[in-house]
Amino acid sequence: MIQQALPARGSRFFAISAMAIAALVVLSFPLTYFLPLLTGRTSFALLAHLHGLTFFAWTGLYVVQTQLVRRGNIRLHRELGIAGVALAGAMVPLALWMAVTAAAAREANGIARPFEFSLYNVIDISMFAVAFGWAVYEAQRRIEWHRRLMFVALLNLFGPAFARWMLKLPLPFPWVDMSPNLIADAFLLVLAWHDRKWLGRVHPVTLGAALILIPFHAVEPLIARSAAWNAIAPTLLGFW
């Protein structure tokens, strides 16, 4: 009985935050995807649809998974975890493929520094893959590590999605570029508060993610615009 109750301890935070983040993700795409799709103003490639479908599906599954844990249905939660692994396995190559396609389109349109935004694509999906893979490894070992690593994986999807709104604001560089991910990182501060409340300390995953992601996201725009990155990015993405 104790072992069945432990996974649900403190799960209300993850269930509620999952719904809030998922709602913000969905609300980030009306102008750039949903409305153009419904009105027919923009024709999207099959790659874009597959990319969107898998990322929305994984986010929706994360919401379902946190609700299952909150209700104590750990068995179904574990069974559905297989679908999460399958989706993640498709998301990583689709995201990299999308990054290469977007960079090629910017280069063809003569945009200065066509590989600048490729850094965000590569880092975000890489951090997602690391956090998700580690979370899967911890699923049967340390449940509190698993929860927080999955939460970090979600945040690495939320930042790029929310950028659709932030990039429309009249903010100067580098604030406009760093703000989406820093807003996502703010959820780590809320998670730290949750940790102190439920665990009496900030969990190592929460602390480690904050110490790594927040400083990096603050300097990421400078790296993305640097001559060094724009020199190595074409080779890294297979253009040369």
Quick summary of this structure?
This protein has 240 residues and is mainly α. Helices cover 79% and strands 0% of the residues. The protein has one domain (2-236).
Description:
The protein has helices at residues 2-5, 11-26, 30-39, 46-70, 74-108, 118-138, 143-166, 175-198, 204-224, 227-236. The protein has 240 residues and is mostly helical. It has one domain. Residues 1-7 have low confidence and may be disordered.
Structural class designation = mainly alpha
Written as H for each helix and E for each strand, in order along the chain, the element string is HHHHHHHHHH
Runs with pLDDT <50, length 5+? 1-7
For the sheet with most strands, the description reads:
none
